[in-house]
User: Fold these one by one.
Assistant:
Number 1:
Amino acid sequence: MTETPDTVASVADPADIAVLEARKRNVRRLYETCINEGRERLLDALLTVDFVGGDGERGAAAFWTSINKIRTAFPDVKFDVEDVIGEGDRVVVRWRFAGTHTGPFAGLPPTGKRVTQTGIAIYQCRGEKLCRAWLQVDRLGLLQQIGGLLIPA
């Protein structure tokens, strides 16, 4: 019998599988433990020293500053990780956050409104640590919820 591409079994190196699973765990820990619980010190275990964030932040301290903008504006923020997918040196996470707008955000005063936002992030990894991030988030939807963008009737 001649094997076709869809019948050829792929055998992955167990070491590669272990590293990929560790990367996926670290992405999940970033959201569920570091961001949700405000555990800044965990960043050193998750990020490379030369990490570049989705908004161009360089290093853990700059990345934490970005996280704190969210945590200050929405102190009860909770990220729910909906999917984590990994391949090669990349891990993709799809998330949803909910929080109450009780602090200034994007130049807007607190509204007291409960909001949600969705997003997808792609992380490039080196070893088991995250070294680069690209983000796609629904900023428009978030701004609409807190009155930062008015939609004509």
Note: The chain has a mean pLDDT of 91.
Number 2:
Amino acid sequence: MSKIGKFKEQDITVIPHNKEKYMSFSIGNLRFIDSLQFLNSSLATLTKNLADEGQKHFNYLSKTFPDPDVFSLLLRKGVFPYDYVDTEQKLEKPCLPSKEDFFNKLGDTHISDEDYQFAQTVWDKLKVKTLGEYSDVYLKMDVALLADVFEKFRDISLHDYDLDPCHYFTTPGFSWSAMLKKTGIVLDLITDIDMMLFVEKGIRGGVSSIFHRYAKANNPYLFDTYEPTEPTSYLSYLDANNLYGWSMSQCLPYGHFNWLTEEEKIKLDITKLKADGSDGYIFEVDLEYPSSLHSSHSDFPLAPERKHIQVEHLSPYSKELLQNLTGKQCLTKIEKLVPNLYDKEKYIVHYRNLQLYVELGLKIKKIHRVLKFKQCPWLKKYIDFNTEKRKNAKNEFEKCLYKLMNNSIFGRTLLNTRKHKDVKLCHTEEKLNKETAKPSYASCKIFNENLVAVEKKRVNVLMKQPIYVGFCILDLSKFLMYDFHYNHMKSLYGDKIRVCFSDTDSFLYHVETEDVYEDMHQYQDMYDTSDYPPEHFLHDIENKKSNR
């Protein structure tokens, strides 16, 4: 960035994360995009994944190093003593630095014997005379390998989606266009500010909580620790396959938003609303959490809320710890997503979740507002396409790509344009004076005498993302987790099971039963057991990677 200020005759524009970090920048008609915004893995990982499919995809590397033996040698990420080279004179060193000189301060890691031997082999094979020449080889390798990886990504994208990612800045932006093209859906944008704020208020992330701090299994399959005189119990970690993929395959809103009238709210029978109906609803309600449920629901309470935890919410022991360990008598003001047993006021919730909460014992005290919309499983076609592609992928490179294409859709639906930055790069005194004189001026970052980044306050915000889709995806993911816990696990084991912790799409259970594997076998249609050893009686590929 320190050099681009010298292009005085060209306009310089950026798409910023902040004053110093940019997603992309342009000099005149030349645009620079960041490959990391598309392929968010190390070059070492990307190269290895692509190499697993063979050498045929490394066209740029073979052109850069045409000797077949050298080409075969360089089919991996190179290594370089970054911290050692702190002066130009060291580039004149006539031999490879010692293994200790390859220590990476940034990663606080030493180079492996295998990597050092690779560096020595490259030095010898290419008849390198100085560390400077080795640096040239290293850089040519990096550029050629990244070019080959990105070209493979482009080939797949053009073949599967008929779109070129080079016309985009990030994978989420590219995947969003691919989804719109593949599904043909037209999404209405909310133009009513009250509806927008209503949906925003209901957005809550995944539940990540520790509910039970210590549990010890008495597992008969673990002979060293099993106590025959004690009740048999297991620690069972279960993970939902592609949780958000499942949510994105459900009926989702696409338009025709309107508030229900008082009369329509009275006539609406929540219990009779269909999961796959053409009409969907988002409710704002007051909920009562009956005290009779508190004991059985204490390890995974329904209807989690974003809350500021107050000192009065803490137990006497926790208050004492707060004082002794921090010297403070107050807590952070950062909101947390908290599962709790309190009654809820003006709780915004998807209708399917509300149906489940009522079925499990919560009571609706009052309905404040109801937002109605049209819905259908419009995203399912795209999700299924990528899921099937991932299932049939020939290598890790393609598996990661198709997974990313699905996951990035969810993130795109929750893109918060309020957080976007407005940054101008000024490379002339005239432009700098103009930008800093504006009332919207906020701050600046001086790179050098030729370049200054000026950050401005946002004058307006365009709310152009269908965040109502993201809200529904998040709530439906909670529906699946609560439904599985209460209507399967809790129904099966009763008070013999406890949630130790939950993290968005997973549970760690402490369950008291004679044989948890036999229990799973009875409900094998609910589980993906394809990763069990082939000789295990639970091994079955029927539900491999399935999210049904």
Note: DSSP finds 17 helices and 16 strands in the chain.
Number 3:
Amino acid sequence: MNTGGAERSTLRLLRGLADRGCEVHLVLSVRGGRLEPEIDPRVVVHHLRDMVGVFPARIGGIGDAGRFVIAAVKWSWGHVQEEWRSRRFANMRMDAAIAGLAGMSPRFICRAVAARKRFVFIRNDPAVDTRGRWAARIRDFHTRIDGYICVSAFVEDAMASAFPAIRKKLVTIYNLLAPEQMRQGLNAGIHPFGDAPGVIRLLSVCRLEESQKALLRMVEVHRRLLDAGLPHEWHVLGDGPDRGMLEQAIEAQGVAETFKLHGSITNPFPYYKHADICAVLSRFEGLCGVVNEARVLERPVIATRFAGVVEQIDDGVNGLIVEQDVDAICAGLASLLRDAGLRERLGAGRLSAGIAGR
């Protein structure tokens, strides 16, 4: 249970179910994630594995070979643990079993859990699945799944188009929000950016994964805006497999002083409070939690055109939507950097009624 939009949405769902009197069990593949301490104490947590093996990318010597052997032992022991611990769920009669996190296979809830109903969350645009994994899982398990819960109407439509066999099982349910919890987090801790009067700060919160979040494009946009005479700082919260790639791009563009990585932050809300603009420039999303957070906290937001964004932003009223193009992104950000009045007006725009009611 590491830091991420889907994980935070899952935490809110667990809390909401517990608030409604449900007995809630959460099954995690491995213990020790960053967000695990934030799981509601009413939730019963099960770990299938105590450890996971991390294999070296390549074997270039004795040291790498040793690490490979250790990783193999950990993986094998973890596999044994998972097979043994999964057996307990056959005798636990559940009303519903949900595969809730992005990318999770429904195999476990179909084969290990005795449940009256089974559901799968679809948290992203199916276009992100370039390897055919979603198609394989739907083919293998759709007869045992009672419903596919899509986080936006766009995602539901895209799933119906891509997988017509499950059209009647698709339903849109927006992620739960916790606006009061977000607002309470605003004033926790010190000013995250320090004192630098007059500096316009952009904030992006995302997993550092180039294929979905277009990290290198962010650095290019930042460099072009600086070259155009629009000074600003760009702060990024989050971690992920492509952090090294992003750091190299920052150095190559010579923007290390103005494009800053803060890593995973448990409470990101003070960063929202002191940011002038929230930039969500992903290639793919399902329904972006960062857009919702920015709107709840009344920060002006600019987003690229991805799945679900038109359900969150009324372009020009409570945010800006720009096309998936560097020139369009630069033009949109330039208008926000130049016009404090526009930032104030967009920040005051409300969240859409359907999402605000969650």
Note: The chain is about 40% helix and 15% strand.
Number 4:
Amino acid sequence: MQTTVLQLTESVRLRGGKMSSSAYDTAWAARVTNQNGKPLFPECIQWLLENQHPDGSWGSQIVNYHDRLISTLSALMALKELNEQGYEGYIQRGETYIWENIRNLQLEKCKLVGSELLFPSLMEQAESLGLHLPYHIKIYQKEYSKKLGKIDESLWYSPLTTLSHSLEFLGDAVDVGRLSNLLLPYGGVGNSPAATAFFLKYVKDARALTFLKKILQSTGNGSVMTVYPIGIFEYGWTIYNLMLARLYFERYTEICDLLQNYFTRLGVGMSAGYPVPDFDDTIIWCKILYEMNYPVNFSVLDAYDAGDYYLTYTSELDPSVGTNIHVLDFVKSCLEFPHREEVIEKLLRYLRKEMHPEGFWIDKWHISPYYATGHAVFALCEVDPSLAEKAVSWILKSQNENGLWGENNGILEETACAVQALMYYHHIVEHIDMERLSQAVSALNLAGSALLSINLPDLWIGKVLYTPVRIALSSIASAQFMVGMGNLQMSVPLL
């Protein structure tokens, strides 16, 4: 595979990150008021009014009931609390949507981050606001009690746990005197605009206000995203995708030099200043650093080793298939890794167990099976080609008639994941019929347009569905280059 070296002159810095808009978080920002009760961010209200779906809901383009229901609930609470004339129709349509669709939650295969805490709490908060909703249907009540029962109350107000990312679940039961512990140096709470807006309801802090203002300036349309900042996450996954296509920028060295400043014994978080390490981000960076001939401390894996698999967070209840795929992808490439063969066999056992009978995997951080399955192919080709072959067979069988992959006759990011996997397999294990890829490649070559960079469907899982735009576009660019038809004339700079 050809190696491309690209030179870029702009200096490297950790950006905030580019991400799709979140109705859920925008609604929380809309509720931030001054001392006179007037909204500080009226542009957020306007965005909500302009972005209600025809069916009465708010949320992602893709119909995921967890996403749509929690986004709609958040938007209704904002409009009801502001209590302005002219909002009644929006509220009634949103209430109707929740009544008609709340039972569809049980149809969803994936759960969003913090759902078991947020749904029960937000329903209780909505009832206190007087919204007309089906409160007799108890959503996640058992899971809510179970989750909180496992977390010591002293950690509820610690910035060192993932709980701070969903701080708004506390509602009116919040201990205002302990909130100041949660504010991070850059002004955010838990890298969450929603949690930061909740914080501002009780503590008027200029740093937190500046944090939200900065996000609104970056989007420019009255919306905020669901996670911010994401600089380490964004750089890592973008470089990961570009390296798959043997694309090497001189800038990688500068980025790696910068990144090393943020590594701790537990790895890195999603951004500089965020004190919660994320092992998925960490292991991707381990792979990048190793490939770039930087020293990697293998002991960083120890804290996340749960015996039969690896965790993403040390307090995690359920493991991520994707994280374990990425651990395998890293370990298989490190001949000097301690007990390498035993670790590889452990991970292969886990992946065989988690593989669906049809030959694919689903990850807890991404709703598309092509994401986890494609990444599994990268990890498996050299260590278990027969398992990789089964995954590739499923990818080929699931191709749409129009040559693309994914829901609704094909989604660009899903198609890119499929093409990346097939081309990797093509080069490492066995040739693929390239005719199968011709229509997909044509579609991917349209991806440099500005509209596509804005309207990529949300496939990544947070408190709501979201798109990390540069990461999604880097997977598209990677797929293009892997089939020999790439260009880097993207509407959004990748690095």
Note: Residues 1-12, 448-454 have pLDDT under 50 and may be disordered.
